[in-house]
Amino acid sequence: DLTGIESMDQCRHTLEQHNWNIEAAVQDRLNEQEGVPSVFNPPPSRPLQVNTADHRIYSYVVSRPQPRASYLTGLLGWGYYFIMLPFRFTYYTLLDIFRFALRFIRPDPRSRVTDPVGDIISFIHMFEEKYGRIHPVFYQGTYSQALNDAKRELRFLLVYLHGDDHQDTDEFCRNTLCVPEVITLINTRMLFWACSTNKPEGYRVSQALRENTYPFLAVIMLKDRRMTVVGRLEGLIQPDDLINQLMFIMDANQTYLVSERLEREERNQTQVLRQQQDEAYLASLRADQEKERRKKEEWERKKKKEEEVQQQKLAEERRRQTLQEEKERKSECLPPEPHPDDPESVKIIFKLPNDSRVERRFHFTQSLTVIHDFLFSLKESPEKFQIEANFPRRVLPCLPTEEWPNPPTLQEAGLSHTEVLFVQDLTDD
């Protein structure tokens, strides 16, 4: 209903990715739809290392005001202090030894971070239930993700460690952190990440930053290409004082961010230039490859055409040779020409397509196929032809067909003793 996902399988898969934390899953889906980078992805395998040992770290500690006492009360207090000193020393020493031994037997459960995003979401709910919804925008992701985003966006990261049991925590959250001026400054100038030290994720960050008291704030930024703590604010600080201290820390370190932005812009320009050069080189390479491909295709096409022409020439040569052999065979198989005085002979004059004339005698009893074979054996006759008679005009069936399986004889075809026949060229057909 909240995200518009209609597939139950996709909903289940999304929830499993977020360890069944429905609020984290919904927020991540909405961020994805709005094009905002996800803050609920698993933390990087190698989290960013934060430099906390810079000697230039600005540290501001607000001490708790001590109640003023009379001279007599002071003497009594000092006397009581010296009397109780041995007992206090023994008590705290034994307590520390006990805690040290207990740590080996049962490790602190906060040292095992199993659901860092869940720790953050749980703290935000607790904070809003106790102090209301008017507060700086909490970063809804792990500490490592906040560091990565601050590094990528070149912004200040303000880290707040919430001590649930500290006596100044309530007053700081109500009267300092939730003041409109403080909220405006934090929301407009930096990312804000917060967590309780009672949560495993907050405890892990506490071990890294090693705060001395609460409330504790740390300002982290990219400095000299490393995420570095550039300011520490500890103790119950008032709103105006907090604003002044944050402004002072940001102003003192703004040049590092400006320098990093310029370097990053220069690197980006260099990268863009290199990318353009690479693209130009690839385009030139592709053009050369395309020319080479076309040249190769043209060569192959030309070679193929030459081969086809050669094949055609060879085929034509073989065909002509076969045709000549067939003509010679037909000529050898022709029966001898009858004598002119033979009464059964027929004198035929053939008019060829090239206007030449050929004359030969045949016997009345011979098949019309003999006439065709004679003409076929002639050098000047076409390869394919038909023989026509004029009176009446007809085509002589010299070759076997379905209608005339056995061609008729000259006498059966109605030829007289002297005939003029026309040879029609059918080669083009």
TrEMBL record:
Compartments in which it is found: Cytoplasm; Endoplasmic reticulum; Lipid droplet
PROSITE patterns, A to Z: UBX
Any Pfam family: UBX
SUPFAM superfamilies the record matches: Thioredoxin-like, Ubiquitin-like
Highest taxon in the source lineage: Eukaryota
GO molecular function, one term: ubiquitin binding
UniProt keyword Transmembrane, yes or no: yes
Gene Ontology biological-process entries: ERAD pathway
Chain segments carrying region Disordered: 285-346
GO cellular component terms, semicolon-separated: endoplasmic reticulum; lipid droplet
Keyword Transcription regulation: no
InterPro entries from the UniProt entry: FAF1_2-like_UAS, Thioredoxin-like_sf, UAS, UBA_8, Ubiquitin-like_domsf, UBX_dom, UBX_domain-protein
Residue spans crossing the bilayer: 78-102
UniProt name for this protein: FAF2 factor
Source species of the chain: Rhynochetos jubatus (kagu)
